[in-house]
Design a protein that fits this description.
Blueprint (H helix, E strand, L loop, with lengths): L8 H6 L5 H4 L23 H4 L10 E9 L9 E11 L2 E15 L2 E17 L2 E16 L18 E16 L3 E7 L5 E2 L3 H4 L9 E2 L2 E8 L1 E4 L2 E12 L5 E10 L3 E8 L3 E9 L4 E10 L10 E10 L3 H5 L5
Antiparallel strand pairs: 1-2, 1-17, 2-3, 3-4, 4-5, 5-6, 6-7, 7-10, 8-9, 10-12, 11-12, 12-13, 13-14, 14-15, 15-16, 16-17
Length: 326
């Protein structure tokens, strides 16, 4: 549950029975950027989570892990962990498979997503590929109301925890890529999931769960070979979801000597970011990210941090000689 100082007095007057822990889910009412699905600083290295068409596109077996701690210093602030594995199907050169696991903790709630990602790629030109992706799996929600400082201890809406609330998940994506650039459009989940809706809290006979709307993602990036020792990659991601402001992220990463990556990014009306990464060897990459909030929320937090690990297993020597910057 977030500290009271992190919220405006208006929030407490609006509904006395909403305690500060639940308010974590209602950031949109505070005048800051609302978020439902997790957001990532190093989104350009976490593509599979939002677009299943990415699975297998690197033509290597790839493992990825990302840990994010958002708004450090605020009790109940979001913490997210993702794990992905993907690779081409050896018996079919134009198919890819992957697994995505996302665990998102915020206040008293923990959301866990398990999805299988499948892609089918067709060549539309020399070194030009268009992948059609499908994502299918499940979404599990757990809420421990005992972690909340409830205004009315006898409120029936907070007497029973939510345990293993199951929802199916079905998504799709298009991913167009060449050796130098990519564009993707995706919807990770077409099915509406209900969690903690304010309207449902007004009705004691209804389940205390808000609605999570469909998210639309648009991503793009281009790699410029400045010289043999320097590559520049501007990238873009936009997220559109009903009931929340448009989220747009723009970034610029520089790769030096195929080893050191340095980057900056801006999230529209939300944060500025610094990133750094290092290619330890042919297979292992480590990345770090830091967000500085450009909203009043920065007064009460110490920013957001990310650690990202990626490990690629190469079976073809030519893939090592020409590593891809996305």
């Amino acid at each position: 549950m977030l500290r009271a100082t992190a919220f405006s007095y208006k929030l407490y007057n609006m509904k006395q029975k909403l305690i500060t822990g639940i308010a974590v889910f209602l950031f949109g009412l505070l005048g800051v950027s609302a978020q439902q699905d997790p957001q990532y600083t190093q989104y350009m290295y976490n593509t599979q989570v939002v677009n299943p068409g990415y699975a297998g596109s690197k033509e290597v077996l790839s493992f990825g892990a990302l840990m994010r701690s958002q708004w450090v210093g605020l009790d109940g602030a979001p913490k997210t962990g993702t794990f992905t594995i993907d690779g081409p199907v050896s018996s079919a050169k134009n198919m890819g498979l992957g697994l995505s696991i996302v665990v998102d903790e915020i206040g008293p709630a923990v959301e866990t997503n398990f999805t299988v990602d499948y892609s089918y790629t067709i060549k539309v030109g020399e070194d030009k590929n268009l992948a059609f992706g499908l994502k299918a799996g499940m979404h599990i929600l757990d809420v421990d109301f005992t972690k909340l400082d409830v205004f009315d201890q006898n409120d029936p809406r907070f007497q029973n925890n939510i345990d293993n609330k199951f929802q199916p998940q079905i998504g799709a994506g298009l991913y167009f890529h060449t050796p130098n650039y990519y564009v993707g459009l995706s919807v990770p989940n077409f099915l509406t999931t209900r969690h903690f809706d304010v309207s449902s809290l007004d009705n004691s006979n209804s389940e205390s769960t808000p609605q999570e709307n469909v998210h639309y993602f648009l991503i793009a990036g281009y790699v410029f070979d400045v010289n043999e020792n320097l590559k520049l990659k501007p990238a873009f991601m936009s997220k559109v979801v009903g009931g929340a402001p448009l989220q747009a992220d723009v970034s610029l990463n520089a790769l030096f000597n195929e080893k050191l990556t340095l980057g900056v990014a801006y999230r529209w009306s939300a944060a500025v970011t610094a990133m750094a990464g290092f290619q330890v060897n042919d297979g292992l990459f480590i990345g770090l990210g830091y967000d500085y909030q450009t909203t009043d929320l920065e007064i009460y937090s110490d920013g957001s941090y990310e650690l990202m690990l990626r490990f690629d297993v190469f079976t073809k020597p030519e893939r090592v000689a020409t590593p891809r910057f996305f």
